[in-house]
Amino acid sequence: MRFGHGISLLAVVSLATIVHSAVACPISANEPNVIVIMTDDQGNNVGFQGNPHVTTPHIDKLAGQSVRLTNFHQMPMCTASRAALMTGKYAEQTGAWRTSLGRTLMRGDNFTIAEAFGQAGYATGQFGKWHLGDNWPMRPQDQGFDEVVGLRCGAVGQIADHWGNDYFDDTYYHNGEPKQYEGYCTDVFFNETIRFIRENKDKPFFIYLAPNITHLPLRVADKYSQPHIEQGIDEKLATLYGMIDNLDENVGRLVACLKEEGIDQNTIILFTTDDGVQGAAISRTPDYWNMGMRGKKGSQEEGGHRVFSLLRWPGNVGAGTENNTLISVQDVYPTLLDLCGLDAPEDVEFSGRSFKPYLENPLDPRDDDRTIFFYYFNPKKLDQRENQNCVIWKNWRLLAGKNLYDISKDRMQENDVAEEFPEVVEKMTAAFDAYHATGKRLVQQPVRFILGDPRAPVVDLTSQDVYWVQDISGSQAFGQGDAEKLKQAHGPYKVTIARDGKYTFKLSRYPLYTRMTFGEGGRKVGDFAIEKVRMSIAGKSVEKTVTPDDTYAEFTLDLKAGDADLDTALMGDGKDGVAFFVTVHFEDEVED
């Protein structure tokens, strides 16, 4: 088996890491089951981390049965962390490296952790949030998962999510088909996970369970939030805490299921969250508890990316121990293969490394020469380093390319020691420069939607995936409320026309299945009535007059295969904005 060894600070940094041999797992014949749980924007809000407000007895018990990975780091934001988890690579290598602006799409040629386990004979299931693309070949069912129940886009209420979802009794997608489920979102995703376990208990399984809590919008039943409000906690933060209390109940149900089915001892659980706590819940609580760290979701400071992580495998890893080895989310994929005795894919070069060797013999960060980069590329300013850049080496943290902190002495990052250690700053800066040069090139290569492939004759585009470019003004239409308010946004959809033929485009303000018209909804932001609809692609431009009672405008064009930009516009009163929804049908091949 071969796994990435990490990136040497003194070497010329490459995103594709040199591989080395790892010790084979001595009990691979048991084919352990694997469950990876990744919550959303939770930060370190669990009882065992010291938060005095949340009530998490089941998670705390799980922590007592686990190795606590106390130096575990995620990427700065949702999509980047999830792409790194699925591929073992830096997010920009996968195509999905940002939560919006058309950069959330993970290329179909990535060989995911689900594909690796599936190739080894495991049943694979994904439940909850994906946020790596909602069209073929980027969906979880295209990327190695046998069964999927989840929401589209990045959160409930975002533009591609099923219209009208609100956390309760929502419609999610079962293997791509919409289906309504009863109950609170977290309960539903755990219910479906438990069902999958019971149905596949007689063979090994790999599960990626990704509850969408505690992402915005903050919603939970009053019985969970009200006790925190009664303790004087701000309502938003109290709701977040209540969502975590509900999560804890579900973790208890999951563990009980494993015991009932007699597979508890042979199931690996890795439990973490995707980044620091989201800011909306703590905006009105300046003294918010955060484990003595600065930062939140998206921050370069420690609190933005250093999060809890548990690894539980009864009888195989040390229960109730802490391990301070430097670990990145990119390490999860190679580590789980290593623990299960599975070969790494031949053509995959991980940016991460297996931390299996360090479970019994933890590696002191002072003796670890690997370097990890946490950088949130900004398509508007690709060279920006302020508030975007964290380089980790040993116990050092270099922020914004200039501020240096020794995290072993200064977890709050209040004492900048850059002037005392200029040689450390110089080395870490050189490493980052090499990393950034490669990443900058990668992020300028868009991942395109594929139109007309026989495996996906219908493609649904939404305005969250409009590709922002420098010379286009305006913001992005990200949520369902943006369509209701006719928010003006601009930019093309990046597409590849797979084959010559006739293509029909339906441009609308709302999803076609809602049958809502151009005239429905408020006009508080855009303040214009839609009078015309226009689109252009591959050198062809068409326009049509519409009425407030129309639900969509339809165009059929003969197109040649190749890459193209699809530009759309809803127009009226001298204003315009991108079509919020575009459905593309391949009709038939054009005769020569």
What does the model show?
- The chain has three domains: 32-321, Alkaline Phosphatase, subunit A (3-Layer(aba) Sandwich); 373-443, Arylsulfatase, C-terminal domain (2-Layer Sandwich), CATH 3.30.1120; 449-588, Jelly Rolls (Sandwich), CATH 2.60.120.
- The protein has 592 residues and is an alpha+beta fold.
- Helices cover 20% and strands 23% of the residues.
- The strands form six sheets. A ten-stranded mixed beta sheet has the order 9-8-7-6-10-3-11-12-4-13, sandwiched between helices. Strands 19, 21, 23, 24, 26 and 27 form a six-stranded mixed beta sheet that branches.
- The protein contains eleven helices and 28 strands.
- Helix 5 runs parallel beside helix 7 (235-260) and helix 6 packs across helix 7 (235-260).
Q: Characteristics of this structure?
A:
592 residues, alpha+beta, Arylsulfatase, C-terminal domain, ten-stranded mixed β-sheet, six-stranded mixed β-sheet, 28 strands, disordered N terminus
Short description:
The longest helix has 26 residues, at 235-260. This protein is globular. The protein is α+β, with helices and mostly antiparallel strands and 592 residues long.
CATH top level of the largest domain? Alpha Beta
Q: Determine the number of helices (DSSP H or I, runs of at least 4 residues).
A: 11
Main beta-sheet annotation: 10 strands, mixed
CATH topology descriptor of the largest domain: Alkaline Phosphatase, subunit A
Radius of gyration: 24 Å
* Helix/strand/pairing category: alpha+beta
Shape: globular
What is the domain tally? 3
Low-confidence stretches: 1-29
Strand order of the largest sheet: 9-8-7-6-10-3-11-12-4-13
Mean pLDDT: 92
Measured between the Cα atoms of the first and last residue, the distance is 52 Å
Q: At the fourth CATH level, what is the homologous superfamily of the largest domain?
A: Alkaline Phosphatase, subunit A
What is the tally of beta strands?
Answer: 28
CATH architecture of the largest domain: 3-Layer(aba) Sandwich
Q: For this entry, what is the oligomeric state of its chains?
A: single chain
Please give the share of residues in helix: 10-25%
% residues in beta strands: 15-25%
